[in-house]
Amino acid sequence: MNVAKGLLVSVLCLSSGLLAAQNHHSQWKKVYERNLTDFELSPEGSGLVLLAQPQGRCRMDVDFYGETGQDKYQYEFTRDRLTAGSHREYRYTAASLSEVTKDKIKLVRNEKLNPASGAVKKEFRDIYQYVPNKVLKKYCF
Description:
Elements: H1 2-26, E1 29-35, E2 46-52, E3 57-65, E4 69-78, E5 81-92, E6 105-113, H2 118-128, H3 133-140
Antiparallel strand pairs: 1-2, 2-3, 3-4, 4-5, 5-6
């Protein structure tokens, strides 16, 4: 009987933990999206999505597309202060862009960015400027 109670408590704790993790992840809400292709930041186009949490914490997901692959950056920040970041680089294994499918994209780099780095801060600010101030003030301040 005690074993059954212990097992039940363990399952309930695990379920609660998974639910809490899922709720934490789902707190991000897409509040702004912009196609950056016209700014010619990359050969095949680019775009950004701004996500926000109720506490004023924001995240920018930025994608750059090229002929041989794509780069995905993720910046977390409050106001204009960068708190975390990551960069993923993918390469296409298809012979041409028209043949690119999900199974023909290979992850070649997955790194955390140092938010204190001058180069990372500059990259962040270069992209940050494409989000209107009124959107930033409403969700990220």
